[in-house]
Design the sequence.
């Protein structure tokens, strides 16, 4: 008996949320991708996922290409479709997986952009003064560069996740996996200043459990921090587009440049697969190539 698109999506979403314990953001991304496919296929008269063929998926990808969707987004969307079909086949809702016959859209892997040490120093020196916001902003920037956290991990830190005695923070990463990340003395000092002299005026009575708060005690949001880091980058005269993720990239790149091993960097970043971390070795290889070409007498 055909379950229909809605029932199959509900079953898949329940599996992702309860059995795989994925984050809300990841669940929303899966839903957006699959609803695009469902909308396209319903307009072609299809009833559920079991009725789709490889030709349906090819036509869907062709439509996405015509609409100007990037190769990266197409590849991510196909990954969502494959994950859904693997579940539906395992549950007996579909007999076969038509996506298995579709080649994944090929894309060049984009190397992450990062800041130089000079740019990092300029950025981190921007929050000036002893006001509560300046102390908070300085602490957030120092912690982000010291740990390589994702911006969502940074803004969701709670006070009880900080162990000042051990100099570490407990981070809740993707798929709710915890990891312990050390903090350097500079970041710890910035946190001490913020917690001792700034946070109480932002969160009356220190009622909020979150580490980084705005006026009134609400948690600093990702969007709020994004705007803040862009403002400080402009003040620092950094002539490139900047995002919080670039400090994460800079953290990893600078560690590897100074001899850190790849497995340690993987653990600090919270990457499940080391191939995700290996992209930073390509960054270093390209950089070495440029240095070689510039300075070796027979490079050209």
Sequence:
């Amino acid at each position: 008996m055909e379950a229909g698109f809605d029932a199959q999506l509900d079953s898949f979403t329940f599996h992702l949320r309860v059995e795989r314990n994925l984050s809300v953001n990841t669940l929303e991304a899966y839903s957006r991708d699959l609803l695009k496919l469902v909308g396209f296929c319903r307009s072609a008269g299809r009833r559920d996922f079991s009725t789709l063929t490889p030709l349906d998926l090819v036509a869907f990808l062709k439509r996405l290409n015509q609409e100007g969707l990037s190769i990266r987004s197409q590849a991510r969307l196909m990954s969502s479709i494959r994950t859904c079909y693997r579940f539906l086949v395992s549950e007996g809702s579909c007999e076969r997986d038509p996506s298995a016959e579709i080649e994944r859209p090929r894309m060049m892997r984009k190397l992450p952009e990062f800041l130089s040490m000079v740019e990092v120093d300029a950025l981190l020196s921007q929050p000036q003064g002893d006001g509560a916001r300046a102390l908070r902003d300085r602490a957030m920037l120092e912690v982000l560069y010291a740990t390589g956290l994702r911006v969502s991990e940074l803004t969701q830190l709670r006070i009880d996740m900080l162990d000042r005695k051990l100099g570490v923070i407990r981070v809740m990463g993707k798929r709710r996996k915890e990891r312990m990340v050390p903090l350097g003395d500079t970041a710890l000092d910035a946190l001490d200043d913020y917690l001792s002299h700034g946070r109480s005026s932002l969160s009356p009575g220190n009622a909020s459990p979150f580490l980084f708060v705005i006026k009134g005690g609400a948690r600093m949001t990702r969007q709020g921090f994004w705007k803040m880091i862009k403002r400080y980058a402009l003040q620092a005269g950094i002539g490139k587009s900047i995002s919080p993720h670039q400090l994460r990239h800079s953290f990893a790149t600078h560690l590897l440049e100074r001899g850190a091993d790849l497995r340690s960097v993987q653990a600090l970043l919270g990457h499940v697969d080391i191939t995700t971390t290996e992209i930073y070795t390509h960054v270093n290889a390209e950089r070495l190539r440029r240095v070689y070409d510039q300075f070796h007498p027979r490079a050209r």
Q: What stands out?
A: Residues 5-101 form a domain with the DNA polymerase; domain 1 fold (CATH 1.10.150.130). The longest strand covers residues 168-172.
